[in-house]
Fold this protein.
Amino acid sequence: LAEAYVALGAQPTYTCAPYLLDSAPSFGEHVAWGESNAVAFANSVLGARTQKYADFQDACMAITGRAPKAGCHLDSGRAAEVVLEVAPLPATPPGEDDDRDAYWSLLGYATGLVAGRRIP
């Protein structure tokens, strides 16, 4: 399957973090990505526009150059419907390990619980 994609012109990057590549999309650019973490990063950090697409749907969009006119591809699908205020984490004391990586996962989980189907 990978060889077929390459034959169609795809770049064989084999990564679940395409936002780290030199070809990462820019602000406002529409892309078709299927990897959950990449979709969140593209929409929130890069300002690109994508949805979570199923296998082969993203390939069809790449071939045709078209994506559904819906969801995060539209301005209306990007407007926050719920805002969460989160206090900053206290600084890690000098000489101690910063073992707070789980905080970000828990914040994402809690945000989903609060937001439900609304856009945070």
Observations:
- The chain is about 35% helix and 0% strand.
- The CA atoms of residues 4 and 46 lie 29 Å apart.
